[in-house]
C-alpha cells in the first residue's frame, strides 16, 4: 500500500462528498446495530444472570454421595442398592480444602457453612426454618445480607440471629425480641433477633435464619465438620468449569448453578446465538453495500483507471487504491457508528440499576473495538473483488484509443 | 534495428476476432524511428493508425512479426515488464486529454512518475512545475481540469507525457478536439519539446496542416505502409 495509492483513495472519497457521506452513514448504521445488539444481548444476559444467580452460590461443595459398592453380582442374582445413611452428611475435613479453593482461578468468595432444619417458636406459633451458620465476616459472601437488612443490624453475636421479613411478619417478630429455636438434632435454645432482612426471594425471606458459625455448630451437634462450602465465581457463567476443577482437586461433590438452571442457560445461549446472527447480517449488509458502491464507482471511473494503466500504473497500484478506498469507508464509518452508539448508550443506567420495563443495555458489552475491527476487515474484503475487476480493465478499451 | 533507431517493427500484423470473423487490421508493417525524430502518421479512418500506435505503445500485443525497442523484445515480454517499460520509456497524448478530474494540473503531470514510484517526490514536483512552465501553464498548476479550456487541458496532457523523460511520445490525434489556434499552439509546443528535449514524437493525424509541421510522413492505407 503506497502513499500515492492512499492519496488517490482519499482524493476519490473527497471528490464525491455526498456519496461518500451516504456510504459511511450506511456503514455507521450497521455498526450501531452491531454495537446495540451486543450491548442489549450482553446486558440482558447480565441482568438475567444477576437476577438468577446474584443471591445464590455459583458452586456448592458437599460431601460426595456414598453409593454402596456392588460386589460381583452373578447373572441370576438380584442386587438391591441402598444409600449409606448411617453417618452424618458433613464435610469432616474442610479446613485444608479452603486454600485449594481460594487458589482456583475464577473463585471470588468462599463461605463454609453449617446448615440444618429447625423450628422457630413464638408463643403458640411454630414455623419450620432453615438455619445457616456462617463464619465471621462471611455473612454477605454469597447473598448480600448486609445490604438486605431492613431493620436492626447484620452483626451476629453468639445469641443473635437474623430472620427474613416474611417470617417476621408471619410470626409478628421485631428486632430485639427473643425466640426459641429447636434443631432437628433435638437441641434447643433462645436467640435474640438482631436484624430482619428482605432479599426479595420468597423462600429465603420466609424460611432462612442466619446465625453465628460456632452457635450453629452447637445447635446442630456438629463437633468438627461442616455441611457445605458455598462459592462465588466470576464470571458466573464459568461456574461449570470451576466446579469441574474443584471436583478434581478436592474430591468433593461440586454442583454448579447451571446444573439447576439449565433452562436459563439454554435461553441465554439461544439469545446469544440470535444476537450473533443479527450481527453477522449487519456485517453482510455492510459488505454488500460497499461492494456494490465500489463496483459502481469503478464503472464510472473506467476511463480514469484505463489512463492510469496506460501511463504505467501497475495492477497492484490500482488494486491498492480501491482496497484502501473501501477500507477507509469501513474504518471511518465504523468509528462514526461506534461514537454515535456510545453517545446514545451513554445516558442509560447500568444493568444493575435497570428498572422494570427498561431495556437492560450494558454499554461495557457493546464490543466497540470488535465492531470497528470487523467492519474495517469486512469493508476491505468487500472492496477486493471490485478492485481486482478495476485492475483488469483494458486501457485500450477504457480510453477508446 | 539499425544503429540510432529507438524502435523497429518487422512484419508486424494484428488481427481481431477468430475464424470466419477474423479481421486483419495490420498487414505486415516494417517501421523504425530514429532518436529525436518527429513523424506524422497519416491515413484515412480504419487504415490502422490507432492500432499501430497502441501496439507501439505496448498497450496491445501484435499478432505476428517482431517488435523491439531499446533492445527489448516487447513481443515476448511479460505484461508486468511491458507496463514497467511503458512507464519508463513511453509517453502518450490522446485525442481526448484524459486528465484525472480529481487531481490538479500539477498532480496530473506528476501522475505517471508517482504511479511508478508509489509516491510523489520533491524532484517530481520540480520537474512537473518546469514542464507546466514550458507549456505555458505556470499560472494554472493548481487548477483542476474542469477549470481549464480544451487547449490548456491538452497542453497539460503533453506535459504529463513528458514527465518520465520518454524516449518516444505517441500522440493519437492530439489536436483532433481543438480549434485551429489551440491546435497550432499544441503543435508549436510539441515541436519545441522535440527540439529542446530530444524526445521522438509519432503523431497520428488526419490533418494535412498538422502533418506538414512534421519532418517525416508515414502514410498508412488498409493496414500497410504506403509511404515512409
What does this structure look like?
The complex is a heterodimer of chains A (401) and B (228). Chain A has helices at residues 3-15, 17-53, 97-102, 145-148, 165-171, 202-207, 213-219, 239-250, 257-260, 262-300, 302-310, 315-345, 368-391, 395-399; strands spanning 59-62, 107-122, 125-134, 149-152, 160-164, 178-183, 188-197, 208-212, 228-233, 253-256. Chain A is an alpha+beta fold and 401 residues long. Chain A has 2 domains: 3-52 and 264-399, no CATH class; 97-251, no CATH class. A 6-stranded mixed β-barrel of chain A has the order 2-3-8-5-7-6. In chain A, helix 2 packs across helix 12 (315-345), helix 10 packs across helix 12 and helix 10 (262-300) runs parallel beside helix 13. Chain B is α/β, with parallel strands linked by helices and 228 residues long. Chain B has one domain: 3-Layer(aba) Sandwich (Rossmann fold), CATH 3.40.50. Chain B is 35% helix and 27% strand. Chain B is built from 7 helices and 10 strands. Chain B has helices spanning 49-56, 79-89, 105-117, 122-134, 150-162, 180-197, 208-211; strands at residues 5-16, 23-34, 38-42, 64-69, 72-73, 90-93, 168-172, 200-205, 216-221, 224-227. In chain B, helix 3 (105-117) packs parallel to helix 5 (150-162). The longest helix of chain B has 18 residues, at 180-197. The two termini of chain B are 16 Å apart. The chains are: A alpha+beta (401), B alpha/beta (228). The A-B interface holds A 2-5, 7-8, 11-12, 14-15, 303-304, 306-315, 317, 395-396, 399-401 and B 50, 53-54, 57, 59-60, 80, 83-84, 86-88, 90, 92, 94, 96, 98, 100-103, 111-112, 114-120, 160, 164, 172.
Amino acid at each position: 500500500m503506497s502513499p500515492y495509492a492512499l492519496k488517490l483513495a482519499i482524493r476519490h472519497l473527497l471528490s464525491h462528498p455526498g456519496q461518500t457521506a451516504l456510504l459511511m452513514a450506511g456503514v455507521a448504521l450497521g455498526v450501531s446495530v452491531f454495537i446495540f445488539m451486543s450491548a442489549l444481548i450482553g446486558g440482558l444476559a447480565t441482568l438475567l444472570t444477576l437476577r438468577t444467580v446474584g443471591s445464590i452460590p455459583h458452586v456448592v461443595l458437599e460431601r460426595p454421595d456414598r453409593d454402596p459398592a456392588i460386589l460381583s453380582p452373578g447373572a441370576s442374582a438380584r442386587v438391591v442398592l441402598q444409600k449409606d445413611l448411617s453417618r452424618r452428611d458433613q464435610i469432616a475435613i474442610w479446613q485444608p480444602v479452603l486454600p485449594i479453593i481460594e487458589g482456583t482461578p475464577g473463585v471470588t468468595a468462599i463461605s463454609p457453612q453449617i446448615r440444618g432444619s429447625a423450628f422457630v417458636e413464638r408463643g403458640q406459633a411454630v414455623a419450620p426454618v432453615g438455619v445457616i451458620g456462617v463464619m465471621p465476616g462471611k455473612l454477605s459472601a454469597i447473598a448480600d445480607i448486609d445490604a438486605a437488612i431492613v431493620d436492626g443490624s447484620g452483626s451476629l453475636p453468639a445469641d443473635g440471629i437474623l430472620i427474613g421479613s416474611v417470617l417476621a411478619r408471619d410470626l409478628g417478630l421485631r428486632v430485639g425480641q427473643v425466640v426459641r429455636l429447636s434443631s432437628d438434632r433435638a437441641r434447643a435454645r433462645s436467640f435474640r433477633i438482631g436484624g430482619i432482612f428482605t432479599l426479595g426471594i420468597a423462600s429465603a425471606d420466609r424460611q432462612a435464619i442466619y446465625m453465628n458459625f460456632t452457635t450453629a455448630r452447637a445447635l446442630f451437634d456438629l463437633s468438627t465438620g461442616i455441611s457445605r462450602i458455598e462459592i462465588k465465581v466470576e464470571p458466573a457463567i464459568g461456574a461449570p468449569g470451576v466446579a469441574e476443577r474443584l471436583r478434581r482437586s478436592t474430591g468433593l461433590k461440586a454442583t454448579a448453578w447451571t446444573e439447576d438452571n439449565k433452562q436459563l442457560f439454554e435461553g441465554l445461549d439461544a439469545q446469544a446465538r440470535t444476537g450473533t446472527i443479527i450481527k453477522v447480517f449487519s456485517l453482510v449488509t455492510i459488505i454488500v453495500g460497499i461492494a456494490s458502491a465500489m463496483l459502481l464507482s469503478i464503472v464510472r471511473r473506467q476511463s480514469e483507471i484505463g489512463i492510469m494503466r496506460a501511463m504505467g500504473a501497475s495492477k497492484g497500484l490500482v488494486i491498492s487504491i480501491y482496497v484502501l478506498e473501501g477500507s477507509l469507508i469501513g474504518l471511518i464509518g465504523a468509528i462514526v457508528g461506534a461514537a454515535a452508539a456510545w453517545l446514545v448508550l451513554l445516558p442509560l443506567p447500568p444493568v444493575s440499576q435497570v428498572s422494570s420495563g427498561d431495556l437492560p443495555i450494558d454499554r461495557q458489552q457493546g464490543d466497540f473495538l470488535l465492531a470497528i475491527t470487523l467492519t474495517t476487515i469486512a469493508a476491505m474484503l468487500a472492496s477486493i473483488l471490485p478492485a481486482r475487476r478495476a485492475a483488469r480493465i483494458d486501457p485500450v478499451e477504457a480510453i477508446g484509443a | 534495428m539499425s544503429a540510432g533507431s529507438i524502435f523497429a517493427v518487422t512484419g508486424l500484423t494484428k488481427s481481431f476476432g477468430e475464424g470466419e470473423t477474423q479481421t486483419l487490421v495490420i498487414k505486415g508493417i516494417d517501421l523504425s524511428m530514429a532518436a529525436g525524430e518527429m513523424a506524422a502518421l497519416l491515413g484515412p479512418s480504419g487504415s490502422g493508425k490507432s492500432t499501430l500506435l497502441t501496439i507501439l505503445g505496448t498497450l496491445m500485443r501484435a499478432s505476428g512479426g517482431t517488435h523491439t525497442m531499446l533492445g527489448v523484445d516487447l513481443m515476448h515480454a511479460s505484461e508486468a515488464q511491458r507496463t514497467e517499460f511503458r512507464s519508463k520509456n513511453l509517453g502518450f497524448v490522446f485525442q481526448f486529454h484524459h486528465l484525472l478530474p480529481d487531481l490538479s494540473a500539477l498532480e496530473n503531470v506528476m501522475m505517471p512518475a508517482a504511479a511508478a514510484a508509489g509516491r510523489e517526490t520533491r524532484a517530481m514536483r520540480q520537474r512537473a512545475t518546469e514542464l507546466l512552465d514550458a507549456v505555458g501553464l505556470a499560472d494554472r498548476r493548481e487548477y483542476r481540469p474542469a477549470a481549464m479550456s480544451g487547449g490548456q487541458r491538452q497542453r497539460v496532457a503533453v506535459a504529463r507525457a513528458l514527465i518520465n523523460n520518454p524516449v518516444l511520445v505517441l500522440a493519437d490525434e492530439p489536436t483532433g478536439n481543438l480549434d485551429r489556434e489551440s491546435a497550432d499552439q499544441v503543435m508549436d509546443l510539441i515541436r519545441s519539446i522535440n527540439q529542446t528535449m530530444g524526445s521522438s514524437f509519432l503523431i497520428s493525424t488526419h490533418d494535412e496542416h498538422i502533418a506538414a509541421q512534421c519532418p517525416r510522413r508515414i502514410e498508412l492505407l488498409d493496414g500497410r505502409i504506403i509511404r515512409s
